[in-house]
């Protein structure tokens, strides 16, 4: 089967690192800023950055509804950190006017780890990722307060859920794109391949 094309939402955040990680995991990777570009990809990564800014720019660029529509209709999506916040059906400690796309029945608390520790690294055992723990890079990271019945918890750090999957939507509190270990991106590329067959 041909190589899947995976976009990285390029409104704000660490776009380049995800493009590199996706290419290393055998996908064709390209930045996505406009609805026409979104229409051309088989899957999408929402990077880390600042979810309040990303939310605002999604409105300005006319991307909010097209993104919601594609997530609803089954396009595989993977969000890291701010991207995880964007994929939560409900958030805590967000800005009042902050929008999310939704996709995972979970409540995510923004900057939750940040209140304790601005940034840190920790070994994280993640279900679906073989070969030992991944290096979790947490930067003003959110955690998942609770998940609904359809969401599957894939990883926990310090008693807090930090990786979740619900059907075609994957989210991590941490940033695998910053480590040079492409196993989580490879898992996502597999999800995109599976959705195409
Ligand atoms: N604290 C940021 C937010 O609220 C997320 C930080 C990150 O993506 N590294 O969006």
TrEMBL record:
It catalyses: L-glutamine + H2O = L-glutamate + NH4(+); aldehydo-D-ribose 5-phosphate + D-glyceraldehyde 3-phosphate + L-glutamine = pyridoxal 5'-phosphate + L-glutamate + phosphate + 3 H2O + H(+). The keyword Hydrolase applies. Its EC number is 4.3.3.6, 3.5.1.2. GO terms for biological process: L-glutamine catabolic process; pyridoxal phosphate biosynthetic process; pyridoxine metabolic process. Coiled coil: none annotated. Keywords: Glutamine amidotransferase, Hydrolase, Lyase, Pyridoxal phosphate, Transferase. One of its GO terms (molecular function) is glutaminase activity. Pathway: Cofactor biosynthesis; pyridoxal 5'-phosphate biosynthesis. One of its GO terms (cellular component) is glutaminase complex. L-glutamine binds at residues 49-51, 110, 139-140. The active site is at 81 (nucleophile), 175 (charge relay system), 177 (charge relay system). Belongs to the glutaminase PdxT/SNO family. In the presence of PdxS, forms a dodecamer of heterodimers. Only shows activity in the heterodimer. NCBIfam families: PLP_synth_Pdx2. This is Pyridoxal 5'-phosphate synthase subunit PdxT. It comes from Streptomyces caatingaensis. The lineage of its organism: Bacteria, Bacillati, Actinomycetota, Actinomycetes, Kitasatosporales. The gene is pdxT.
